[in-house]
Every structure is written in C-alpha cells, then in structure tokens.
Design a protein that fits this description.
Elements (H helix, E strand, L loop, with lengths): L7 E2 L8 H14 L7 H13 L4 E5 L2 H11 L5 E4 L6 H8 L3 E4 L11 H4 L7 E7 L8 H11 L2 E5 L7 E2 L2 E2 L6 E5 L12 E5 L2 H10 L4 E3 L2 E2 L10 H11 L2 H19 L5 E2 L7 E2 L5 E5 L1 H4 L3 H10 L2 E2 L26 H9 E4 L7 H16 L3
Helix pairs in contact: 1-8, 2-8, 3-4, 3-7, 9-13
The chain binds ligand T4K.
C-alpha cells in the first residue's frame, strides 16, 4: 500500500469560517477591549455554562492554570491521590502547588483511576483526589464521591478531555468539588489556548474569579494572592464562534469513530474504546489498545510502521507520569504498585480523529493495521 501523500496527524484543530471570526474581531476592535473580562469573555462564560450544563463556570487562559487555581481554591495541601495515566499537566499542577502526587493504579476498562484502590492509599496527609476523565470516559464518580465524603477529601476532576460529556443528561462538570477543562487547539472544542473551571457553588465562583485575577477586588483592594489566569477577548471570540460548530464537529467524529469500530471489530489483539451506558460521549479521541501477544506485534512497532505510511499516531499516555524523572523516586511510582497502568501505557495508541479526516482515510488506516498484523504491508 502507498503511503498517504500528506501527513495524517492524530488531530487537527477545528477552524470556523474566517469571516465569522472577522466579524467578532471587528467588535473587539471597536470596543478597544482586549482582555480583563470584557464582553466576549462574559458572553462565552454564559454560553458555555448553558452548553455544558454547569451552574458556575470561570474561563481561563489554559487548562493547566485552571487546574492550578482549582487546587488553590479548595486549599489543597499535603498529598493528593491521582492517576499516572494522564498528560504531564495533571501531576505538575500538584507539584506547582507544593503538593505531593500519590499515584494510584487505573481501571483496566475505563483506564481512569481505579476507585476501588483509592481508599488504601489515603493517609493523614491526604487532602484530595485529582481524577482524570481520560479520553472523555467518565470516572466512577459515585464511588469516588463516597470515598471522598467518608474521609473528608476534596475531589477535583481533570476534565480536559471531557468537553460536552454527560452522565444521564447531567453535565460532567457538575461532579466533584471542581472540574477543569482544556480548550487547547488539539481539543474537540478550543479557544486556541484556554480552559475553564466548573462547579456548583456560588462562593467558590467568587474565590476562583479573584484567584485568576491577582486577587483584585477593586482598584484599591487585593484580597488574596492570585495569579494571572484570564482568558483574553480574542480567545473568547474564537470560543464563541467555535461553539456554533462544535456539535457538527462531534457528529463528524462520531461517524468516523463508527467506521473505525466497524473496520477493527474482531481484529485479534485490538481493544476498542469502551462505551459506557447512559453516557453522552464526545468522540474527542479514538484510542485503541494493542496486545502484543494477541496482535503479533507491539504497539511501538505499529506506531513506527504507521509513521512510514505518513500516519502520525500518538502514544497517549506513554511514558506514565510516575516514570518521569521528577516523580519516579516516589513510593507510589513503583511499577509493582501500578501494574495495570504499566501495561496500558505500553499498549495504547491514539489513532487520527478529527472532523476533516475523510472516511476513506480512516478505512485506509484500518487496512494498514490489518496488513501490519499479517506482516504484508
Ligand atoms: N490535563 C490533561 C488530561 C490534558 O490532556 C491536558 C492537555 C491538560 C490537562 C492541560 O491543558 P492545557 O494547559 O494544554 O490547556 C497536546 C496538547 O498540547 C495538550 O493540550 C493536551 N493535553 C495533550 C493531550 O495533547 P501534545 O504534546 O501531544 O501536542 P502536539 O503539539 O504534539 O500536537 C498533537 C498533534 O496535533 C500534532 O501532531 C498536530 C496537531 N496540531 C497541533 C497543534 C498545536 C495541529 O494540527 N495544529 C496545532 O495547532 O500535547
């Protein structure tokens, strides 16, 4: 089979019609208001809290700052239990808050933190749980909340991958004490860079809005040591325009995900992404697992082979965060404590998925996977 003429990346950003953005930019130009919570910012906060079905939402300049501020807002300290199978930002925001990440193993089906293993990791130093809805699959939110309530812990969800996800018609951002999303260019919905925190508490909204704006209350009053986490007006304008197209983007990805499922069903050694009952998925990623024993070749081999055909898949999330030099000395990072995560980290492969990808390309990628397995590509 011939390689793709152009590189096929794991994702491409959704780009709205330029004219629509241009109209928004003209509004910004005439207002001469570029940042510090202007009209675009206010409009986007309102529209997103309705779209995501969350009572309170604060915009941020990126998902990482949103998570950092979530930790500050809840006054977390000491140790926080988290997952090693995530993007670097998750444990890093703990470290930046002077909190020790405690890595807990993951569930073999959802690949999220294993709610049954959290309790055994709790010590007097534990103040919270930072769980991630990895690839948009919701965590076991009920069980996590039960554990947190019993031990008096706070729960933050890193919902960076979970834009638009719902459990039984309830917005994913309403679970736990705070959820944080990323609106990075590589995400289903984006504001170029950006993010948000979501929750159900009015007093928390006020605290978070102080924290993201240096703690400034008015011209002469600074009430707490805040940071600059503000989303600017250009980002917010992009967000407002993209919100008009996100449903269509999601639908295109759903169709392509179905093509992947149809083509790869029954292929020995390939595990397809889990589908949970009563969950509205967002089709942000299509991440398969490749069992070397059953498939015949390792994930790393498949990754390299696909590259030869101009297909740039990603090993999300390899290496595990617990194997980073800054965390591997931690007791909780020992591989024997994280057997499921260690195996999944070796097996996961994010396949290309974005609205502009053609169905033909998806079928060709699947054909390549089949040929690689036969050793006859
Ligand atoms: N928590 C979790 C669980 C996260 O996954 C993330 C971010 C965060 C927290 C933090 O949120 P932010 O502070 O980022 O808002 C990407 C993203 O940069 C990162 O936002 C994301 N997670 C992570 C999963 O993916 P990389 O290193 O894979 O990005 P990069 O530059 O290699 O891009 C991937 C592919 O996307 C490229 O091969 C081509 C395509 N691409 C990328 C960009 C930036 C484009 O086509 N156009 C573009 O503009 O991290």
């Amino acid at each position: 089979m011939k390689p793709f003429k152009e590189p096929v990346y794991v994702t491409r950003p959704m780009l709205p019609p330029l004219e629509e953005l241009d109209t928004k930019l003209k509004d910004i130009w005439s207002a001469k208001w570029l940042t510090n919570c202007g009209q675009q910012h206010i409009m986007l906060e309102n529209r997103l809290s309705a779209y995501l079905k969350v009572p309170y939402l604060s915009l941020f300049n990126n998902g990482t700052t949103a998570l950092m501020v979530a930790c500050q807002a809840l006054r977390l300290s000491g140790d926080v239990i988290t997952t090693p199978f995530t993007f670097a930002a998750t444990p890093h925001i703990l470290a930046w808050n002077n909190i020790k990440p405690i890595f807990c193993d993951i569930d073999p089906v959802t690949m999220n933190i294993d709610a049954n293993k959290i309790e055994q990791m709790i010590t007097p130093q534990t103040t919270g749980i930072l769980a991630v809805h990895v690839f948009g699959t919701p965590c076991d939110v009920e069980k996590i909340q039960r554990v947190a309530d019993y031990y008096g812990l706070k729960v933050i969800y890193d919902a960076a991958h979970a834009f638009g996800v719902e459990i039984g018609n309830r917005g994913i951002g309403t679970y736990g004490d705070i959820s944080a999303m990323s609106f990075h260019a590589t995400k289903l919905y984006h504001t170029v860079e950006g993010g948000a925190v979501m929750h159900n508490s009015e007093p928390l909204k006020q605290r978070i809005d102080f924290l993201k704006n240096f703690g400034i209350k008015d011209e002469e009053t600074v009430v707490m040591p805040g940071i600059n986490g503000k989303m600017n007006e250009l980002q917010a304008a992009m967000g407002l325009v993209n919100l008009n197209y996100v449903d269509a983007e999601m639908e295109k990805r759903r169709i392509l995900s179905d093509v992947y499922r149809e083509e790869l069903a029954g292929l020995a050694g390939i595990t397809l992404p889990v589908v949970l009952p009563d969950v509205k998925a967002n089709y942000q990623y299509f991440v398969i697992r490749i069992s070397e024993k059953q498939f015949g070749f390792s994930r790393n081999y498949v990754y390299s082979k696909l590259k030869e055909y101009n297909v740039y898949t990603r090993k999300y999330f390899y290496p595990l965060c617990s194997n980073y030099t800054c965390y591997r000395q931690l007791e909780s990072s020992r591989t024997e404590n994280l057997p499921v995560a260690a195996q999944i980290g070796e097996e996961c492969l994010a396949l290309p998925l974005y609205g502009e990808l053609s169905e033909l390309s998806v079928r060709k990628i699947c054909e390549l996977l089949k040929l690689i397995q036969k050793g006859s590509e």
